[in-house]
Each structure stands twice: as C-alpha cells, then as structure tokens.
Amino acid sequence: MEKMRIVMCDENISEAEDYIRICRGICDEHGVPAELKHYAATNAFLFDAEDDVFLSLVSILIVEPNGNFGAIPATIRKGGYDGLIIYLSHSTAFEHMIQGYDAGAFNYVLKGTDTQNLSRFKKIFEKSLEAAKQLVRQYVALSAAGEYKQIAVKDIFYFETVADHVINVEYKGGSFKFPSDMKEMDERLCERGFFRVHQSFIVSMDAIHRISYTELMLNDGRSVPIGRKYYSPLKSALERWKL
Are residues 151 and 226 in the same domain? Predict the structure, then answer.
C-alpha cells in the first residue's frame, strides 16, 4: 500500500503534537503506512501548497479553523484539492461549522483531553483513514521534470520500461514517462489490480482480454509480451481476479 500523507494545520504546537501522536498510533494499529506533517504557520503551508504535487498527495488535512488557518480549506478546495478535510477545534462558533460545511469537510471534531472528545476524534480519524484508502486506490500519482499526472487506475493499460530508470505508462487518453523502475512500481501496484508479466511490463488485470504462452492481448487490441517465468503465476492470478 502507498504511504498515506496526513497534514495537520494548527498554530498550537503542543496540541498538534499530541494529536499527531494519536494519529500515528492509529495508523500503526491499522497497518497503514503514513507520513504525518504539522504546520504551525500558514506561510509555510502555502509555500508547499504552491506545488500541485504536494496537495495531490495529501490524503487527509486536519485544520484548526479558529486562527490564521481558517481560510485554508476554502482556498485549496478552489484550487482543486479533493482529499479529506477534518476540522479539529476548541471552537463551537457557528461560523466555523458553516465554513467546514462549505469546504466539504469530512467532519467537525471538538478538541479535548476528556474521554468523550478523544474517543470521538479517534473514531472519526479511523473512518477517515478507511475513506482515504479508497480514494488513494483510485489513482496513481506520477511526476517527472516538474510535470505531474494523477491517473485513474481504471484507465491504465500497462507500464513499460523504456530506458534505464525510466518508465512509460499507457492509459486511456495518452502516455507519460517518469523516473522509476519495475521493482518500485511492482511494489506500489501489486495490491491494486496490476501484475508483472515480463521483466519490462506491468499490466492492469482488467485490461487483459486473453493470454497465450508468449503474449497477452489487451482490450484495446494491443499486445504485450509475457516472460516465460511469469506465465503460470499470471494465469493463476487471472483466475483469482476474475472470480
């Protein structure tokens, strides 16, 4: 599974660190590899957010709206951010709750060290992890030389090695070359409906029309070679996948 990117925007450093520890513990408990980052200043967050790749890789954004971060959710939504947003605050002000609604927040949770508030936050965060995992699985994020692509998994045909540490992905609507290798891509994609069929090819199981001992035919009519050692594992994997 790809690493989950979780960002917390909160000017209160000590409270943010406490919640980061809680989130990290929940991720570990559920076996979710995660990268958690805290921003205490809006200028630092906005600097990183200028990079489209950064925001596209943030699965969950946790925001304290009572302060300088209050305008952040609406701003990034206008910029196309489609990840999950959780409001986490001491504030019970109606205006902040409306802001959360307008920004399409996943939930609004009150801060607190009491059992009730902590329990509710943990339940909401666990639910957000499950929702975020589904979003992550729908796309593959790739970048090269400052260009970024977020490609729907359902649109991908195959990945092919075209040079040393250079991969090309073929998908509905085009292709894209990016720096990587087959081992790395195999690890990223093996649980997302893809199968390595050759030293130089990883193919979407849903894109396969039929296979022979030496090659497979894709739904769009293109053919891809099958390495000898991959044929039997591929055949077994296809039988399981089509069930």
Answer: yes
